[in-house]
Amino acid sequence: MEAHGRREVHDAVVVGGGPVGMCFGILLALHGADVVVLEARPERLGHTRAIGIHPPGLRVLERAGVAGALVAQGVQIGEGVARSRASGRTEEIARLHFDPPVLAVPQWATEEALESRLAAIAPGALRRGVRAVRTEQTAGGAVVRCEDGTYAGRWVVAADGARSPLRSCLGVPTYGHPLRDAYLMGDFADATGDGALAVLHLEAAGIVESFPLPGGVRRWVAHLDEPAVDPSARDLAQIIAERTGAALDTSACTMLSAFTVMERLAARMVVGRVVLAGDAAHEVSPIGGQGMTLGWLDAEAFAPLIAAGLDRGGSSGGSGSGWSQLWVATERERLRAARAAARQARVNMTLGRALPPPLMAARNAAFRRLYGVPWLGGRTAARFTMQS
């Protein structure tokens, strides 16, 4: 229920204080907007969920003023290698070079850097423990009604996650469906000797992925035939040992998570004076790590338009067919990018599914031949790192 004691008015109200919402708030503040960022969680989570920052995302973070701090903390992944034991011994199937590299850094560190930057340029902008209930259009903008009051803005950004209550109350339709893939993921002390390599183990029972993290930690992700029920670090270690031969120290597991995959894309991203961003606009599989970067690219695209609308004034943030067409074109491009990311995520998941050993061996042989062609390897690397 909404409390009536608080009412604030700002240029822009950003709902959601995760990586996308805070980045959006920073970019708006850098454009001179009076911005408030509302976050339901009273404290920042300490889990290392999303870890991959692709080169286009790092470009946005550079504009936000946090890239340097994250690069200093993270691991730069310049190569990825695919291996397989389908032949009875571990063989290298393909090797891809990432130029620029992908940055691996725990999400809590990314959020910490963004929060610090937002506090430096817009003190007090982040409001924790504020839960948005709905949004409504007004003559001069939109209002966000929360459990503790009302926040009015000439623009509202809904970066409130895949189950976005703001998207729901606006009546924006979505399309998509749950996917049949399930995964078990955990962070362990790295005893592989693979250093900064990203490794894909293409095995008949399902793919196992591993990625380096700062502090001598490696993330392991295993594809499962069905969702894990009450899994343990020992369960994941056993799966990895059976498929790859790697031995993990279960006492050194710092995170464990089982998840299934949903694909959900919004039909629109702009409704009046409300802009949907991040998972509120496009929920894609985390396999491939494109979701967070996709949201930052939303912020990069829309923040300058919102700021220009504030400068132009007027109830519509500007007038003329050219201005309207610019918004339409930007929305169309971001929707296209979301569809492309969803397609790539589906490809990534298909690659990870179990195959009978003879088919796995045949596919590995085909990959070995294909990715021996330099231009094809370069093109694949660019696609995996969101540069094509």
Task: Set out the fold topology.
Elements: E1 7-15, H1 19-30, E2 35-39, E3 52-53, H2 55-64, H3 67-73, E4 75-84, E5 91-104, H4 107-121, E6 126-128, E7 132-138, E8 141-146, E9 149-158, H5 165-170, E10 174-189, E11 198-201, E12 208-213, E13 217-224, H6 233-244, E14 255-266, E15 270-271, E16 274-276, E17 282-283, H7 291-312, H8 321-352, H9 357-370, H10 374-384
Parallel strand pairs: 1-2, 1-9, 2-6, 4-11, 9-16
Antiparallel strand pairs: 3-5, 4-5, 7-8, 8-9, 10-13, 10-14, 11-12, 12-13, 14-17, 15-16
Helix pairs in contact: 1-4, 1-7, 2-7, 7-8
Keywords: Membrane, Oxidoreductase, Transmembrane, Transmembrane helix
GO biological process, one term: 3-(3-hydroxy)phenylpropionate catabolic process
Pfam families: FAD_binding_3
Give a written overview of the molecule.
With 388 residues, the chain is an alpha/beta fold. The protein folds into two domains: 7-64 and 107-176 and 263-347, FAD/NAD(P)-binding domain; 75-106 and 179-261 and 352-384, D-Amino Acid Oxidase, Chain A, domain 2. It contains ten helices and 17 strands. It has helices spanning 19-30, 55-64, 67-73, 107-121, 165-170, 233-244, 291-312, 321-352, 357-370, 374-384, and strands at 7-15, 35-39, 52-53, 75-84, 91-104, 126-128, 132-138, 141-146, 149-158, 174-189, 198-201, 208-213, 217-224, 255-266, 270-271, 274-276, 282-283. The strands form two sheets. A nine-stranded mixed beta sheet has the order 3-5-4-11-12-13-10-14-17, with helices on both faces. Helix 2 packs across helix 7.
